[in-house]
Amino acid sequence: MGTATMWAARVHAFGDPEQLVHEEVPRPEAGPGEVLVRVHAAGVNPPDWYARRGFENIPEAMRPVRSLPFTPGSDISGVVAETGSGVTEWQAGDEVFGLVDFPGRHAGYAEYATSPAAHLARKPDTLGHAEAAAVPMAALTAYQFLVEHLRLGPGGTVLVNGAAGGVGHFAVQLAGTRGAGRVIGVASGRHEAFVKDLGADRFVDYTQTAAEDVLHEEVDVLIDTVGGPNGHRFLPVLRRGGRIAPVFPGEYHPERATALGISVGGWQVHSSGEQLAVLGALFDAGRLRVAIDGVFALSEAAQAHARAEQGHIQGKLVLHVAA
């Protein structure tokens, strides 16, 4: 750490959103292979509030260890302030965005953040910093699940559960760019126009109708952003040979799924500047867009987390950091 300081939102004790404290802290310096980014905006993601609560939603034996105090946040958009030794692809003044060092440490809720150079991509010209900060984790999750793991090609039917949320609204769009024959979105009724406008061919309002009551063995791929103990309710909607991609862990009755010829994946998003560059090109080409539910000041990080935990978010929440 150098002698310069910055403002950040840090967690000093695990618990409710009020544990996020806006305070002045030492400014980091770029190490070898790293870039120091002047953060203009930071995305708010579920792992941020899981970490704030001490990962209480994860079985104790599997919980990551986080030392207190810590700065949450892995999604950033900003301007390169300086580069560490060995970095040749970036220079001061470049506008960049990225999912920084994930899975691993998080430190994006701050005026400055360091990042491995390879985890950054050039910010799309068509996006402002707030929009760009809303992209990395959610869009990379959708992209890696559909392209890297499922290898989704033309044809077939894709069902996205939680289609209006961060990952979900990107999954709907990316399924279309990959040539899916039909995309079905599941969300609450107030999101119907939004999800259809993203490219969904059919919408199911789960508050009125259970998907398994209206879809019968017609889905090839389920992107389930909700998971939970009732995830298995979707088994009847999948064709034999169908695939489930859980974004959040769920109970899918593995023996029953196997008997039905249904496979269940288990993947986690990872940082990739190269893949973000591919997504950036899709934004600049007008083939992807990002929805923002709300923007909060860095000093309002606690309020942003409180809003996040209310659920029913359309798109993403973002922290505004720099003018």
Plain-language structure description:
The mean pLDDT is 95. The strands form 3 sheets. Strands 3, 4, 5, 6, 7, 14 and 15 form a 7-stranded mixed β-sheet that branches. Strands 10-9-8-11-12-13 form a 6-stranded parallel β-sheet. It has a two-stranded antiparallel sheet with strand order 1-2. The chain folds into 2 domains: 5-135 and 290-320, Quinone Oxidoreductase, Chain A, domain 1, CATH 3.90.180; 138-264, 3-Layer(aba) Sandwich (Rossmann fold). Helix content is 24%, strand content 28%. Strand 8, helix 4 (166-177) and strand 9 (182-187) form a beta-alpha-beta unit. Helix 3 packs across helix 4 (166-177). It has 323 residues and is an alpha/beta fold. It is built from 9 helices and 15 strands. It starts with a strand and ends with a strand.
